[in-house]
Design goal:
Blueprint lengths: L1 H19 L5 H12 L6 H4 L5 H14 L6 H14 L5
Length: 91
């Protein structure tokens, strides 16, 4: 019985998780993108392209390798999300 209650409590916590997730801060992500990416190149090229999430992940991963530790994995995730939202596939 106790095990069931623990399992139910865990499931309830997992179900509530998305409700407590923070909204994506587009302005903060834009600032991060501008700061990190402009350290090596202009922002014109990436902002003229449209890519899906996989395309942006590939690009940001490649750029992060060139940046020698300037872009953390967490920063890369935020930058990918930002670029996917503002320069995702053209419809």
């Amino acid at each position: 019985m106790r095990r069931r209650l623990v399992c139910l409590a865990l499931l309830a916590g997992l179900a509530a998780g998305p409700a407590f997730a923070q909204e994506f801060d587009l302005e903060a992500a834009k600032a991060l993108f501008e700061k990190k990416c402009s350290a090596c190149h202009s922002l014109d090229r990436p902002l003229k392209k449209n890519k899906d999430r996989a395309g942006w992940e590939k690009t940001v991963s490649r750029m992060a390798r060139y940046a020698s530790g300037m872009i953390s994995p967490e920063d890369a995730d935020i930058i990918v999300e930002y670029l996917t939202r503002v320069r995702g596939p053209a419809e």
